[in-house]
Write a structure and sequence with these properties.
The chain starts with 5 loop residues before the first helix and ends in a 6-residue tail after the last helix. Helices cover about 35% and strands about 20% of the residues. It has about 240 residues and is of the alpha/beta class. Strands 7-1-8-9 form a four-stranded antiparallel β-sheet. A three-stranded parallel β-sheet has the order 4-3-5, with helices on both faces. The chain has a two-stranded antiparallel ribbon with strand order 2-6. Helix 2 packs across helix 8. The chain is built from nine helices and nine strands.
């Protein structure tokens, strides 16, 4: 088995790994354990009571984190005509159509969110092999295919802290909720917004307790278990 660093082991020693912590206590432990020389990302991991092999039990959606992700978000928009004008005026980093497609086909992916208008979706399907692997392909289910008049709102949301969540093949959702330098209440607010969005995406076919387990960790730190009932009860603050 790979050995952990001394810093990791010291952080792990401060955590009771069989204990289910309240969300605020877990956040405090994660912040204390984030001692790397860079501002570590705080990540939430939620195992759901679903069968990811079943089409009617897929969980996917978008959460708007009220306190952002602590980084600049580069937004690309596939659009033309009126949509191109609106996206440019709204401050998108890259706006275009065929020119952007050619760059991406050449391997360029220096952006964080890709949006597209419906009229252009048929032309960007060929980019699926490049963008799909990176989770950047616009899709109606991910709310990244938007009407031209909605582009300013979508661009603003992407910059503020829009995260797309999706069930993996093991039934877990992994998502960032901010940086270790964030104030605890801001991480809590982002966690509540994410949990609420996931709960709202619950498939009708699922019965019983939806959230089975929850843990939170920093990029380089150990995971901290959170009581799933307490996590499920979190409510975003308007």
């Amino acid at each position: 088995m790979p050995k952990h660093s001394r810093r990791y082991d010291q952080a792990a020693d401060s955590i009771e790994h069989l204990t289910f912590y309240e969300p605020d206590a877990a956040i405090s432990l994660v912040k204390d354990s984030a001692t790397a020389k860079f501002d570590e990302t705080v990540e939430l991991h939620i195992r759901l009571n679903v069968d990811p092999r079943q089409a009617d039990q897929q969980v996917r959606g978008v959460a708007l984190l009220p306190h952002g992700l602590g980084k600049a978000v580069r937004v690309l928009v596939f659009a033309q005509g009126e949509g191109e004008r609106l996206a440019t005026e709204a401050g998108a980093d890259y706006v275009g159509s065929d020119d952007l497609m050619e760059r991406i086909e050449g391997g360029w992916t220096d952006f964080d969110v890709a949006l597209a208008t419906p009229v252009i979706m048929g032309r960007i399907g060929r980019l699926g092999r490049v963008l799909g692997r990176r989770g950047l392909m616009p899709s109606p289910r991910g709310n990244t295919v938007v009407q031209p008049q909605d582009l300013p709102r979508a661009i603003e949301e992407a910059r503020k802290g829009r995260v797309e969540f999706r069930l993996d093949r093991t039934g877990i959702i992994h998502s960032p909720i901010g940086k270790a330098s964030f104030e605890p209440e801001n991480l809590m607010g982002n966690m509540a917004a994410l949990v609420s969005a996931i709960t709202q995406a619950r498939p009708e076919a699922v019965r019983g307790q939806f959230i089975r387990s929850v843990s939170v960790s920093s990029s380089m730190g150990p995971g901290v278990r959170i009581d799933p009932i307490s996590a499920s009860a979190l409510q975003p603050v308007d």
